[in-house]
């Protein structure tokens, strides 16, 4: 039977051996990990696009912006676009793509204007629509022009160029057009600078 002194001596030797063997074993395991690890190839790094960060910060873009309000005569308007970029010097001014303007009068009249691009000043409520501008009205007019510009604050929008299309009376062509308010404050279409109308009688 082992004596207590002998048992304590055996335990002390085991502890001393462990304090040497365990650290050495840990070092061996670590060295094995480093030896087995794959060499890092700098070319395997995740590729980053070559983008000027400062330029991206300046080139902010809004997706599907929307501006609503009332003109001076009470005509409601909704101006929207597929995308827009604010002016760095004045965020209220924007250039936009694929624009759509909806005008709805108190009496129920409605006009929908679409354009490929344009500019908007939300502070002044000014618009400048350009590129394949198309106007459709609830009174039966379908009109085409290259540019519409003016104010939504008092509803005064002008086409400075030729306008073509058709309406309830037939095909028409005019040197210009204005969307404004009549004496009663209702929205109206006014054709200017010479108007040619090819009358097409209604079919029965």
Secondary-structure-based class equals: alpha+beta
Helix-strand pattern: HHEEEEEEEEEEE
What is the strand tally? Answer: 11
Shape: elongated
Percentage of residues in strands? over 45%
CATH homologous superfamily identity of the largest domain = Lipopolysaccharide (LPS) transport protein A like domain
- Helicity, as a percent range: 10-25%
- Major sheet, described briefly? 11 strands, antiparallel
- Level-2 CATH architecture of the largest domain: Sandwich
- Based on CA atoms alone, the radius of gyration comes out at 38 Å
Overall number of structural domains? 2
Q: Determine and state the CATH class of the largest domain.
A: Mainly Beta
Distance between the termini: 127 Å
Contiguous helical run count: 2
**pLDDT < 50 stretches:** 33-38, 45-51
What is the name of the CATH topology of the largest domain? Answer: lipopolysaccharide transport protein A fold
| Mean pLDDT reading | 80
């Amino acid at each position: 039977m082992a004596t207590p002194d002998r048992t304590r001596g055996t335990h002390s030797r085991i502890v001393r051996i462990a304090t040497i063997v365990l650290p050495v074993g840990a070092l061996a395991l670590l060295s094995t990990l480093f030896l087995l690890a794959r060499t890092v190839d700098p070319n395997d790094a995740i590729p980053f696009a070559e983008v000027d960060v400062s330029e991206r910060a300046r080139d902010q873009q809004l997706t599907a912006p929307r501006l609503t309000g009332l003109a001076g005569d009470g005509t409601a308007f909704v101006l929207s676009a597929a995308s827009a970029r604010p002016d760095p010097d004045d965020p209220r001014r924007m250039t936009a793509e694929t624009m759509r303007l909806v005008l709805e009068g108190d009496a129920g009249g409605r006009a929908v204007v679409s354009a490929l691009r344009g500019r908007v000043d939300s502070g002044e409520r000014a618009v400048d629509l350009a590129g394949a501008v198309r106007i459709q009205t609830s009174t039966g007019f379908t009109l085409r022009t290259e540019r519409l510009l003016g104010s939504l604050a008092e509803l005064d929008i002008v086409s400075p160029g030729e306008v073509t299309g058709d309406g309830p009376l037939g095909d028409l062509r005019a040197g210009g057009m204005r969307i404004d308010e009549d004496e009663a404050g209702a929205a109206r279409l006014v054709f200017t600078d010479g108007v040619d109308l090819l009358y097409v009688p209604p079919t029965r």
